[in-house]
Design a protein that fits this description.
This protein has 144 residues and is mainly beta. The protein is built from 3 helices and 7 strands, in the order E-H-E-E-E-E-E-E-H-H. It has a 4-stranded antiparallel sheet with strand order 2-3-4-5, with helices on one face. A hairpin with an 8-residue loop joins strand 2 (15-22) and strand 3. The longest helix has 10 residues, at 99-108. It is rod-shaped, with a radius of gyration of 21 Å.
């Protein structure tokens, strides 16, 4: 989805409201329910964007190997002109914002290094392989 910013570039005070759901599964099928809400403003000829990008990321829990769904949120707050942004938080192409690529980049940075299905995940027993969230094992008692 491309957002044409040339419409507000020429008039100080113009605002373009963004409130849309995106499908970024083509870039990474682990993302779903992606939403972008925010505003692009022309303040004295300088364009600013303030937006919140949210979505769900589905992966495998690093402890128990079960599916884990994480709610992610990224804040986008930058200034830019029609050709370039002051940082890499926006993807601009020919005076248009590539909202799909921008959302993907922002949410990708929010993925934690360790993915857990829940905060207190017990993981898998290293001896018998049982998921300790679902059942207990006797392995600890056998070692004593």
């Amino acid at each position: 989805m491309l957002i044409d910013i040339s419409k507000i570039k020429s008039s100080t005070g113009d605002v373009l409201v963004i409130d849309t759901e995106l499908d970024i599964s083509e870039l990474d099928p682990a993302f779903s329910d992606v939403k972008v809400e925010g505003k692009i403003k022309n303040i004295a000829g300088v364009l600013t964007i303030k937006a919140v990008i949210s979505g769900t990321y589905t992966a495998v829990c690093d402890r128990c190997m079960e599916e884990a769904s994480l709610k992610l949120e990224a804040k986008l707050d930058t200034i830019f002109d029609i050709n370039e942004a002051k940082d890499d938080s926006l993807t601009l192409e020919n005076g248009k914002i590539d909202l799909i690529r921008t959302a993907y980049d922002a949410l990708s940075l929010e993925i934690p290094m360790v993915i857990l299905c829940k905060e207190d995940c017990k993981g898998i027993c290293p001896h018998c392989g049982k998921n300790l969230n679902l059942e207990e094992c006797d392995c600890a008692e056998d070692e004593e």
